[in-house]
Design brief:
169 residues, two-stranded parallel sheet, alpha/beta
Length: 169
């Protein structure tokens, strides 16, 4: 990724929480694991030591990535958005025109996407098909299984529900 990274305030908070966890807990833990493995002797053939060093490398890489993402974050406060067209941060209720089933998606930044929560990355095929559409419009989504049509039934701008608020660690 290059340039600014769009995200919600919630997404930025989650990144900062993860960064704090990595820097204060995981770094300390892996340092102790390396110290214990080092005490086992010959480092050339010490699998524990090599595994711990590899884990340390992953943690440090993740810290670098998160710092970069935070530095390039373009935070968009979805609670202040309004309008009648689908944009980043919108929550959209769709009806599949073939099956008549409805589904609700929230359009978020790539780093926040979570299909279990039904949060779609703004760059996903479904989100791209929805951007700019209004209630009553039909969006055609191309997928490996063929084209699907969704009618936009409702559009709202809201903060995530309480159960998705950041938890205290």
């Amino acid at each position: 990724m290059s340039g600014n990274i769009p995200m919600t305030p919630y997404g930025l908070r989650k990144l900062k929480e993860e960064l704090k966890q990595l820097q204060t807990v995981e770094r300390t833990k892996i340092s102790k694991e390396i110290e214990v493995a080092r005490a086992h002797g010959d480092l050339k053939e010490n699998a524990e030591y090599h595994a711990a060093k590899e884990k340390q490398s992953h943690i440090e890489g993740r810290i670098l990535d998160i710092n970069d993402w935070i530095a390039r974050a373009e935070v968009i406060d979805t609670s202040k958005l309004k309008g009648d067209a689908v944009v980043f941060g919108a929550t959209v209720v769709l009806r599949d025109t073939e099956t008549e089933k409805t589904v609700t998606y929230r359009i978020v930044g790539e780093l926040e996407a979570d299909i279990k929560k039904r949060w779609l990355a703004v760059t996903s095929p479904v989100a791209r098909a929805l951007i700019g559409k209004k209630v009553g419009d039909t969006a055609t989504v191309r997928s490996p299984g063929g084209e699907r049509e969704f009618e936009i039934e409702e559009l709202r701008f809201e903060d995530p529900p309480d159960e998705e608020a950041p938890s205290a660690h």
